[in-house]
Design a protein that fits this description.
alpha+beta, 6 helices, about 190 residues, binds coenzyme A, eight-stranded mixed beta sheet, single chain, Aminopeptidase
Length: about 190
């Protein structure tokens, strides 16, 4: 598959490049950013490994993991990452996630990026169902998933150990019929 680029009103989501690691490292080391995630806080080698794995997944055939750099269309600044992974190919199912630099939170960028990758999943990968999980304390993320048209399907009790503490998760999902009826969070 060729280098992928997804465009929204204000963002360009594109495949990661090797020289992206420093921009990723900025948010990957922020404890507030990684608070609800098993990912991070990163050492320099963790971030470089993350980029290395993302680059390796670009070469997979068939490709099942799509980890995109989220960049501002106007300035090309890398503000985060968003990914979708075909985790149940026989059922055309995938899971997705995202993580953005703290200094651009609250401007609708996560909603725009999440909507773009779910749209990519349905329209380009031919998926039937996309799901995401988020920590029950991560109200901003739950809101993003609701804004793009996902339904809360489950509350998992202590399914995640994050930095030594058991955490609960919500599971959100959307199927292709529902997606075609929604705006997918685009402005
Ligand atoms: C979660 C995250 C991606 C949200 O990014 P963002 O760009 O600020 O999201 P948006 O601006 O698109 O939307 C956030 C929504 O959550 C709401 N929100 C933010 N903080 C909230 C809180 N503490 N309680 C309730 N709602 C909250 C906002 O008001 C907004 O909803 P609205 O448009 O209805 O007002 C961002 O905070 C982040 O990267 N966090 C760290 C990584 C992470 O947790 N990733 C998700 C793992 S599941």
């Amino acid at each position: 598959m060729a280098f992928i680029k997804l465009e929204t009103a204000r963002l360009i989501l594109r495949d990661f490049r090797k020289d992206d690691w420093e921009a990723v490292h900025e948010y990957g080391t922020d404890l507030e950013v990684v608070r609800f995630m098993p990912w991070g806080p990163n050492t320099e080698s963790d971030t470089k490994e993350f980029i290395k794995l993302s680059l390796a997944s670009q070469r997979e055939e068939p490709r099942t993991k799509f980890e995109f750099a989220v960049t501002l269309a106007e300035s090309e600044r890398l503000i985060g990452g968003a990914g979708i992974r075909v985790s149940a190919p026989a059922d055309r199912g995938a899971d997705m996630g995202y993580c953005l630099h703290r200094d651009i939170w609250g401007q609708g960028y996560a909603t725009e990026a999440a909507g773009a990758i779910v749209g990519f999943g349905f329209e380009k990968l031919g998926l039937h169902r996309v799901f995401a999980t988020c920590d029950t304390g991560n109200e901003a993320s739950a809101r993003v998933l609701e804004k793009i048209g996902m339904r809360r399907e489950a509350h998992f009790k202590q399914d995640n150990m994050i930095r030594g503490k058991w955490r609960d998760s919500y599971l959100y999902a959307v199927v292709e019929d529902e997606w075609s009826e929604s705006t997918g969070g685009q402005p």
